């Protein structure tokens, strides 16, 4: 189904339950005496690009790890793809893991495996496909992530930062997930490589209808691709909305992200992009709502 059909309009009122892919209610997390989350509440909607932002150490990666069953909160409810994560048996947990892909903050590729073997790993773990088919799928995912076929035979240590991110994205997409988690997908990349990753992310949502949850500090990426952004600070979600809505808020925790020169440059660039896209789509009937046509 087209993601533009699936996507819920950002209107006031409750999102229909079938359009909520992830829900966190009153989630609190502590490590010993260190309290990270006190009361996190959020909803991620089907086929949206949902971003989590917040200062370093505010608990973004921890929240993501809780969404993907790598960590349990101290209290609260986390529901993903219709399942309450606290009440999952092993079989249901494995079935659920098969429905999402994850790109970890530090890549998470196995250094002793080639890129192609890394991409094929989720297929080996979760399916009975034979080696030849797994290799074929891995090669296809490699090209989808914008990497040349020969990269498949290379080891992670031989890749540039941008190639590593792409290989890691290819692995996250191996099982054709419905839900994609990206932890800092553009961190450490030069602007051209980062822009390539922006486009890849958009493509996953626009063509394949994936729901995407990403953590990022990259303001360009936020302005270019995020539908809604949740700001995490002091243990809770301080605000959640479009970048435009957040940029107009008075909340000091939110304002911090929009006050620097990098933020203003990113917003100007997004405005230029928006104008170009508006001109392109001006004559198109039924213009779709998406990041490129959003008001920014
Ligand atoms: N397994 C753990 N044991 C103890 N403390 C942890 C653990 N995981 C995370 N923390 C602590 O929880 C806090 C939040 O960490 P987290 O990695 O979620 O932050 P973050 O918002 O992703 O930061 P960054 O932007 O730097 O990636 C940090 O203070 C971290 O030290
Ligand atoms: Mg992190």
Range of helix content = 25-40%
**What hetero molecules are in the model?**
adenosine-5'-triphosphate, magnesium ion
Beta content comes to 15-25%
* Rg over CA atoms: 19 Å
Terminal CA distance: 27 Å
Helix run count: 11
The best one-word shape is globular
For the sheet with most strands, the description reads: 6 strands, mixed
In N-to-C order, the SSE pattern is HEEEHEEHEHHHEHEHEEHHH
Q: Quick one: how many beta strands?
A: 10
Walk me through what this model shows.
With 296 residues, the protein is α/β, with parallel strands linked by helices. Helices cover 38% and strands 22% of the residues. It has eleven helices and ten strands. It has helices spanning 3-6, 60-67, 90-97, 115-126, 131-144, 161-172, 191-208, 219-225, 243-247, 252-255, 261-281; strands at 20-31, 34-45, 49-54, 75-80, 83-84, 100-103, 179-183, 211-215, 228-233, 236-241. The strands form two sheets. A six-stranded mixed sheet has the order 6-7-8-3-9-10. It has a four-stranded antiparallel sheet with strand order 2-1-4-5, with helices on one face. Helix 8 (219-225) packs parallel to helix 11 (261-281). The two termini are 27 Å apart. Residues 1-12 and 280-296 have low confidence and may be disordered. The structure holds adenosine-5'-triphosphate and magnesium ion. Magnesium ion is lined by residues 60-61, 105, 183.
């Amino acid at each position: 189904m087209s993601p533009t059909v699936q996507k819920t309009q950002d209107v006031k009122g409750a999102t229909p339950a079938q359009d909520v892919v992830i829900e966190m209610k009153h989630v609190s997390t502590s490590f010993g005496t260190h309290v990270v989350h006190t009361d996190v509440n959020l909803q991620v909607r089907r086929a949206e690009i949902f971003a989590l932002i917040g200062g370093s150490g505010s608990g973004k990666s921890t929240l993501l790890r809780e969404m993907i069953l790598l960590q349990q909160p101290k209290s609260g409810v986390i529901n993903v793809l219709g399942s309450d994560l606290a009440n999952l048996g092993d079989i249901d947990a494995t079935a659920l893991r098969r429905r999402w892909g994850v790109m970890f903050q530090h890549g998470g590729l196995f250094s002793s495996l080639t890129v192609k073997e890394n991409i094929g790993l989720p297929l080996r773990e979760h399916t009975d496909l034979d080696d030849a088919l797994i290799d074929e799928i891995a090669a296809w995912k490699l090209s989808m992530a914008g990497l040349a076929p020969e990269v498949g035979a290379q080891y992670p240590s031989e890749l540039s930062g941008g190639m590593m991110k792409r290989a890691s994205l290819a692995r996250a997409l191996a099982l054709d997930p419905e839900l994609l988690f990206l932890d800092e997908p553009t961190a450490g990349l030069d602007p051209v490589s980062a822009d390539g990753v922006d486009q890849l992310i958009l493509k996953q949502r626009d063509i394949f209808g994936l729901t995407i949850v990403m953590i990022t500090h990259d303001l360009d990426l936020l302005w270019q691709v995020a539908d809604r952004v949740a700001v995490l600070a002091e243990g809770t979600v301080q605000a959640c909305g479009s970048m435009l809505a957040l940029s107009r808020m008075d909340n000091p925790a939110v304002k911090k992200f929009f006050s620097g020169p990098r933020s203003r440059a990113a917003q100007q660039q997004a405005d230029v992009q928006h104008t170009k896209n508006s001109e392109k789509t001006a004559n198109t009937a039924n213009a779709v709502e998406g990041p490129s046509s959003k008001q920014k």
